[in-house]
Design goal:
Elements (H helix, E strand, L loop, with lengths): L23 H14 L3 H15 L5 E5 L5 H9 L7 E5 L2 H10 L5 E5 L10 E7 L10 H11 L5 E9 L3 H17 L4 H11 L6 E2 H10 L5 E7 L2 E7 L1
Parallel strand pairs: 1-2, 1-4, 2-3, 4-5, 5-6
Antiparallel strand pairs: 5-8, 7-8
This protein binds S-adenosylmethionine.
The site of S-adenosylmethionine has 21 residues, from helix 3 and strand 2.
Length: about 240
């Protein structure tokens, strides 16, 4: 696991009104948080780069939507030879964008502090939403994906990773327990895990694999593949 500032945000009790947001405190420890909380995170980021290398069309742009600290933006730039466009890293969290602006010096990446629902993508063959859609208002998700898919270049792809619920109750219970165990194994206490779950309840709304796949069909995408699943986290590639 990488050396970075340790996430101790939920070591202490939280107030009843506390809600998880991507503020300065979260941005400051995000690297440690995401690595200790998302099973397969490094694999995901690395392979989003590999998939992008395969589908990238020369002289087009890449959009990393909900880019946080730009792990995916950096991964695609590392993997694609002769990259000839811009990577637009978009995030509504000013704290995340500020950290990136201070730490990343790559002229190919343009940092944009904006709501992804307001973004019009231009000349793009790759759009990435790695663990982002789950934080977008449920009512806006279909419109957002429909717009992105319609603006995507032909033969381009959207890569979407989400935490999911499992349709069969026993499967869902099994994976939720295993995910808790994964976090405990990475040094979080049961209390920290429970506090963060409560904090996330109103911010991160999880959908089932079927709901996602129904939405892909509804926006007119029939050519999609689930290329990753680790416990209750899945990633799809949608091809136009
Ligand atoms: C779990 S993080 C994504 C992780 C990141 N993609 C990665 O691979 O490391 C979710 C990010 O999406 C951003 N976000 C959530 N809703 C958003 C929205 N409507 N518009 C822009 N960014 C959003 C958050 O600020 C946060 O940085």
């Amino acid at each position: 696991m990488k050396e970075c500032k340790k996430d101790n945000l939920y070591k202490k009790k939280i107030s009843k009104s506390h809600k998880f947001t991507f503020d300065n405190k979260v941005a400051d420890v995000f690297e440690d948080m995401v690595n200790r909380s998302v099973p397969g995170y490094d694999f995901l980021v690395d392979n989003i780069g590999v998939l992008s290398k395969n589908f990238y069309q020369p002289n087009t742009n890449i959009y990393d939507l909900g880019s946080s600290l730009c792990s995916c933006s950096l991964s695609v730039l590392e993997k694609i030879d002769n990259f000839s466009g811009k990577v637009f890293a978009v995030d509504s969290s000013k704290a995340m964008i500020d950290i990136c602006k201070n730490n990343i010096n790559k002229e190919e990446i343009k940092f944009i502090n904006q709501d992804i629902c307001e973004v019009d993508v231009k000349n793009t063959s790759i759009i990435i939403l790695n663990l982002t859609l789950q934080f977008v208002d449920l009512k806006k998700r279909t419109n957002l994906l429909e717009k992105l898919f319609s603006q995507l270049n032909k033969n381009g792809v959207i890569i979407i990773t989400e935490k999911i619920t499992l349709d069969k109750e026993s499967d869902d219970i099994f994976f939720k327990k295993f995910h808790d165990f994964y976090k405990e194994n990475n040094g979080y206490t049961k209390e920290e895990i429970d506090r963060k779950k409560i904090a996330l309840e109103k911010t991160m709304l999880i959908e089932s694999e079927k709901s996602h796949e129904r939405r892909f069909l509804n926006i007119g995408c029939e050519n999609f593949y689930k290329w990753f699943q680790c416990y209750n986290f899945a990633s799809w590639i949608l091809i136009k």
